[in-house]
Structure formats: structure tokens, C-alpha cells
Amino acid sequence: MTSVDLEVERETAPARSSAAGGLGRRLLRLLGLPVLLILGWWAFSVTSESFYVPTPPRVAQAFVETWFSQRLFDDALPSIARLLAGYALATLIGVGLGVPIGLSVRLRAAAEPVLEFFRAIPPPVLVPLIMLLAGIDNGMKILVIVSGCVWPILLNTVEGVRAIDEVLSDTCRMYKVRGGARLRHLVLRGASPQIMAGLRQALSIAIILMVISEMFASSSGLGFTIVLFQRGFAIPEMWSGILLLGLLGFGLSVLFRQVERRVLSWHWSHRA
User: Fold this and answer.
1) Which terminus of the chain, N or C, has less C-beta within 10 A?
2) C-alpha dihedral sign at 220, 225, 227, 233
3) Candidate from 67-71, 110-114, 182-186 with smallest mean pLDDT
4) What tens digit of pLDDT does each residue of 199-244 get?
5) What is the dihedral sign for C-alpha 214, 216, 220, 222?
6) What is the CA radius of gyration of the chain?
7) Contact 123/144 with Cβ under 8 angstroms?
8) CA-CA distance, 204 to 87, in Å (whole number)?
9) How far apart are CA 209 and CA 216, in angstroms?
10) Using an 8 Å Cβ cutoff, are 158 and 94 in contact?
11) pTM > 0.90
12) Residue 171's CB: how many other CB atoms inside 10 A?
């Protein structure tokens, strides 16, 4: 090795060491708490004599046996499809109604008492009513998800439209930016931070209502399967269903964060 190579090696070594250290710190932040929780669960389950607290290896075995099988197609995937359908429908309704309500003072004054009344009703209370009106098929479960998800999206859209900068509104008016161009470039773009906040809140609500709707009157789905395991005292399998729900929520949250970063890239750069 020449002296030049030695000099280059000495210069690049600290950079590689710093990069490796940064990667190690990121992994520690990402995996540190989950590993500690699993170790604590493991220690508690080993010392516990309760039948209802299985060890992590037993739950992991039940997870593989239960969900890497036909149950994935019969229960998990239909639940995810209902979740996404209800969430998408709630998004269309929430944004579609929130924009005109936010733009019109009179419409907002007329609609606000009604919105506050229906928002105060807990969505699980509506499940028996929706069952009577829509039956017990997929439509009922999707309507239950919509009944809870639409409110954070709608109310955040209204507030986001109301909070649009008046200077930008006057500028659009001055340059005669109207119709679809105004809606796209001013209204939706200006309200997008709060719309995305409402969509994030609605995502967690959608998962909860998906499970609740399947626990009431269903013959498939994650909620139904977890209750079935609980009634049959298949405790590791029940825990595996709960674990799958947690992984589903985590995956959807990561995916939503990527979409949010793209949609609000202009917002973060503006704040920076």
C-alpha cells in the first residue's frame, strides 16, 4: 500500500466509523424499546403460572401457524379490504363536505350544530342501528367504519379551509384564479396540513371500528377470529391475532407517513 493509499485510508476511516455509529444509534432508537418490552413480557410469562399469559415463542409459533395459512385469505385480507373501503369512503365524504362548509359562513353556521351533535355520539353505539338498517354483510361493517372516521376528517377539513391565509385568497381573487384552479392550488393545498391531521386520526379509529364491527355479527374477519379464539380458550392464537392487529396498525402508520411526507413536502420546506 502506497503512502497515498494510507493517507486516503486515514481520512475515510473516521467517516465510516461515524456512519456506522449513526446507523447503530438509529437501530437502537428503533428497536430498543420493543426489545425491552418483549424481554419484560418474556420474563413475566416465564415466572407467571397463569394460563392466559403465554411466552413470546409460543405466541410467535401460533402466529405462524394461524396467519400463514388459509386464515390469512379468509379473515385477515377481508378485514383489511373493509378497513380501506370504509376509510376511503370517509375521506371522500369528509373532504367533499368539509370544503364547501369551510368556504361558506352561512353553510357553516347552519351545519355546525348538527355536526357537533352527531360527532358526540360514540360510533360503537350506532352498530346495532346500522345492523338493523344495513344487515350484517360487508356493507354494515364499512358503514360502521365510515360513521366514526368521517368526523375527524370533516372537522379538520372545515378548520383547515377556514384558516387559509387571507392574503393568498385576495391574491387569487386579484389574478382571477377561479374554479378548479382555485380549489386545487389554494383551498386544498392551503388546508392540506389539517386535512392530513384528520386523516391520521381517522386511520386509528378505522382499525378500532373494523374490529368492533366484526365482533358484533360476523362469520369472518380479525375481530371475529379473536373472539372465537377467546371463547375456545385458544390463548396463544388469540394473542397472535392481537399481534397481527398491532403490526397492521404499524404498517399503515408507516405507509401514511410516507404519503404525508410527499403531500406536505411544500409545507415542511416552507416552515424550514
Assistant:
1) C
2) positive
3) 182-186
4) 999 999 999 999 999 987 778 899 999 999 999 999 999 999 999 9
5) positive
6) 25
7) yes
8) 10
9) 11
10) no
11) no
12) 12
